[in-house]
Design a protein that fits this description.
CATH architecture of the largest domain: 3-Layer(aba) Sandwich
Distance between the termini: 36 Å
Largest sheet: 7 strands, mixed
Bound molecules: pyridoxal-5'-phosphate
Number of helices: 16
CATH topology of the largest domain: Aspartate Aminotransferase, domain 2
Number of domains: 2
Low-confidence stretches: none
Strand order of the largest sheet: 3-9-8-7-6-4-5
Radius of gyration: 25 Å
Mean pLDDT: 93
Amino acid sequence: MVEALREQIATERGSSAVSDSKRLTQVEARLRAAVAPRLRRVINASGVILHTNLGRAPLSRAAVEAVAAVAGSYSNLELDVDSGRRGERAALLSGLLTSLFECSAALVVNNNAAAILLALTALCKGREVIVSRGQLVEIGGSFRMPDVMRLSGARMVEVGTTNRTRADDFEQAVTTRTGALLRVHTSNFRVSGFTESATLAEMARVARAHELMLLDDLGSGATEPIADEPTVADSLRHSDVVTFSGDKLVGGPQAGIVLGATELGAAAVRKMSRHPLARALRIDKLTLAALEATLKQRLTGRLEDIPVERMLRVPVEEVRRRAALWSVKLEERGVRTRLVSGESAVGGGSVPGHGLPTTLVAIEGPASRLAAAMRRGDPPVIARIEAGACCLDPRTVLKGEDETLIDAVEVAARSLEG
Ligand SMILES: *Cc1c(COP(=O)(O)O)cnc(C)c1O
């Protein structure tokens, strides 16, 4: 309150006098801005299903309810209610994960970046880790594989070239100092043309022959094949330890899921969970609740209840019907539209270059001004500009958001009139 008045006085000092009513309005606006939520819901009409800037996966209803149920009360987070002794929070989900993914050990940490850092630190510190030059990726923000490697204390040994790496390159690089072979899924780009990369199976053969560990940073954690995205099951068949995100294709909250296959992998996961860094990278109870609910939906085959799965699977005819309905409603309110064919994107660094056919509602008018007006609306609507038009993709708009979206688009379009 005092701050708002001070700011007002400062503004008035620097300009000509204002009327009392104008002053009141301005102070009110300042107060409103001060208490407005910083993190708020937006409607994602961009057509990018896993949009990192928009919080990646929206949670299922069951996950939201699970969060609400533990958020405002005490929970058995680290209590074994049967024995009354101290329990392990990480142990709460490991059984679910090993059943769902049919593997021998599991651990959950804060996110996939944390999972990789923990794996490299706990398992490879002071040792060499062999990785293909074609996989030294930056995932966005500041997650660069060579930097994470340095931070962990493991020494990175690069093999192959940007476009070609063979199994033999790994073989040649093995020394007595080698701790592991690492495969990083090149999630956000594709190298095409004259390319070759060692398959995970080939890398596994080299690892086995030298009794080395094979780590796989899978990225998005696909449970079923989408285009050529490697699945968790593919990875578990060959690697010892696999890590991926909870909020990409799994469709749950931000989390880093670590799975161990083989005896070597299971021992590695146990070692990771006992490492002091695991405490710093642990997940909180709200995440745990949301992840448990999401994993149970997967385990019971209720994939349609997970928003990300629904968006991936919705047939193009259904998207088209929804787009046509929006178009009619917007036209009725004087907003000129047309339907155009386009593609939705999986996003989140999953399946680059693979679009899902969709129908877009293009709003007539100055595209970037329209998109900006929608973004500044309440709730903000995130559109996408394509072929010079401001477009809405129904695929990523959640059930029940249609009317709010139509209202917001109408308000934005009107704000540009006159
Ligand atoms: C997304 C991604 C990461 C980072 O995962 P976060 O859960 O965001 O920390 C790391 N590696 C790969 C290959 C990825 O696709």
